[in-house]
């Protein structure tokens, strides 16, 4: 038995020694793409962390493809991202103003997708007319919360400098 333990100890020591001597190093984590950077920063901002979202000089906010306003990012971003469709007091059963920041913050652990969905809950997704956007990233609720009453899509449209130039909030409701 003592001989077996000696062999195991030598084998373990030899393995540890071999790994160090081979020069094998851990591979670095892949650098996140601009979409992951933007969506991660937006989720963090919605959760109360500092605003590190890569904003364009001018940002447009829309609800279900309908332009609400264009603003210059700065100290009032959270307020600029509140609104309602013209002439309404509710959006899909939610009292106005609605905000993509609040929607994401209240979603628990959102997921991130690369392309706008065809449907948000029971509604067809309406893509805003964003002609200059080169890429998109979409923040959605967890799969278990994608029903006709609680589904949403916060779509971030990035320009050629990888800055968020348009945010669209799509909500599903009764």
TrEMBL record:
It comes from the Bacteria. This is Uncharacterized protein. It comes from Nocardioides jishulii.
């Amino acid at each position: 038995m003592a001989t077996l333990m000696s062999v195991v100890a030598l084998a373990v020591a030899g393995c540890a020694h071999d790994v160090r001597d081979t020069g094998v190093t851990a591979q670095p984590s892949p650098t996140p793409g601009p979409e992951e950077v933007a969506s991660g920063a937006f989720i963090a901002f919605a959760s109360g962390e500092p605003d590190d979202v890569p904003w364009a000089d001018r940002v447009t906010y829309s609800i279900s493809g309908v332009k609400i306003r264009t603003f210059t990012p700065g100290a009032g971003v959270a307020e600029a991202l509140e609104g309602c469709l013209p002439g309404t007091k509710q959006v899909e059963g939610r009292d106005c103003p609605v905000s993509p920041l609040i929607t994401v913050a209240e979603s628990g652990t959102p997921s991130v997708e690369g392309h706008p969905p065809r449907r948000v809950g029971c509604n067809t997704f309406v893509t805003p007319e964003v002609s200059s956007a080169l890429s998109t990233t979409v923040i959605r609720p967890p799969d278990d919360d994608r029903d006709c009453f609680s589904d949403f899509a916060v779509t971030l449209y990035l320009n050629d400098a990888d800055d968020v130039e348009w945010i669209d909030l799509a909500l599903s409701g009764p």
